[in-house]
């Protein structure tokens, strides 16, 4: 009798666990790795307003360009007026011989309020949430090691860590916005102070030609 009961329990346990295991496997999302072009690689970050982030990264040695756009969601063809589940994000085009992905991650956390959930500064909502994207296991480990270090320092890190899938370029008028509109109210009141705060933390990575 005990033997039959044991067999039944084992069967029930295995039956219950199987769908959960399958469900877990189905949820796993593999990252998309973007190939280097002309020796330049690409990294992706979301950290509040993309105008601010673009300006920050374009001031970093080894970064050729930062492009504003949308990432982190599933909506096709997002726009500024309707990017739904995407966050404002930036594509960072950089020379790995000059600046490493690890340094870009350091820049990311040095240039934001690490603990702010769903926003940065005055920009509030899921569209402004912080996300660090990885394209392979090496990048994922770099990000996770940085978050572990920050956690050990006492920070409650708000940034999500996500497998990169796709980056959608934002409308043309968003590109180089801070550079083209240096006297605009938001740029003067938010972007420039945010950049200066970052620059004071990592002056060694700033291009000599950049001044504010």
From TrEMBL:
<comment type="function">
    <text>Has an important function as a repair enzyme for proteins that have been inactivated by oxidation. Catalyzes the reversible oxidation-reduction of methionine sulfoxide in proteins to methionine.</text>
</comment>
<feature type="active site">
    <location>
        <position position="49"/>
    </location>
</feature>
<keyword id="KW-0560">Oxidoreductase</keyword>
<dbReference type="Pfam" id="PF01625">
    <property type="entry name" value="PMSR"/>
</dbReference>
<dbReference type="InterPro" id="IPR002569">
    <property type="entry name" value="Met_Sox_Rdtase_MsrA_dom"/>
</dbReference>
<feature type="domain" description="Peptide methionine sulphoxide reductase MsrA">
    <location>
        <begin position="43"/>
        <end position="187"/>
    </location>
</feature>
<protein>
    <recommendedName>
        <fullName>Peptide methionine sulfoxide reductase MsrA</fullName>
        <ecNumber>1.8.4.11</ecNumber>
    </recommendedName>
</protein>
<dbReference type="GO" id="GO:0008113">
    <property type="term" value="F:peptide-methionine (S)-S-oxide reductase activity"/>
</dbReference>
<comment type="similarity">
    <text>Belongs to the MsrA Met sulfoxide reductase family.</text>
</comment>
<dbReference type="InterPro" id="IPR036509">
    <property type="entry name" value="Met_Sox_Rdtase_MsrA_sf"/>
</dbReference>
């Amino acid at each position: 009798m005990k033997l039959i009961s044991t067999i039944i329990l084992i069967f029930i346990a295995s039956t219950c666990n199987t769908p959960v295991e399958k469900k877990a496997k189905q949820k796993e999302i593999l990252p998309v790795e973007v190939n280097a072009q002309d020796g330049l690689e690409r990294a992706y970050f979301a950290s509040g307003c993309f105008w601010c982030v673009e300006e920050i990264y374009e001031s970093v040695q080894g970064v050729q360009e930062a492009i504003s756009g949308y990432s982190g969601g599933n909506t096709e063809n997002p726009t500024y007026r309707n990017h739904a589940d995407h966050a404002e994000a930036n594509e960072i085009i950089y020379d790995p011989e000059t600046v490493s992905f690890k340094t870009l991650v350091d820049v990311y956390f040095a240039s934001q309020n690490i603990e702010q959930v769903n926003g940065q500064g005055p920009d509030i909502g899921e569209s402004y949430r912080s996300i660090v994207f990885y394209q392979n296991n090496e990048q994922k480990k770099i990000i996770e090691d940085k978050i572990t270090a920050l956690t050990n320092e006492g920070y409650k890190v708000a940034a999500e860590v996500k497998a990169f899938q796709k980056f959608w370029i934002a409308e043309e008028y968003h590109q180089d916005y801070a550079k083209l509109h240096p006297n605009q109210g938001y740029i003067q009141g938010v972007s420039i102070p945010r950049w200066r705060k970052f620059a004071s933390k990592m002056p060694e990575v700033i291009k000599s030609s950049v001044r504010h």
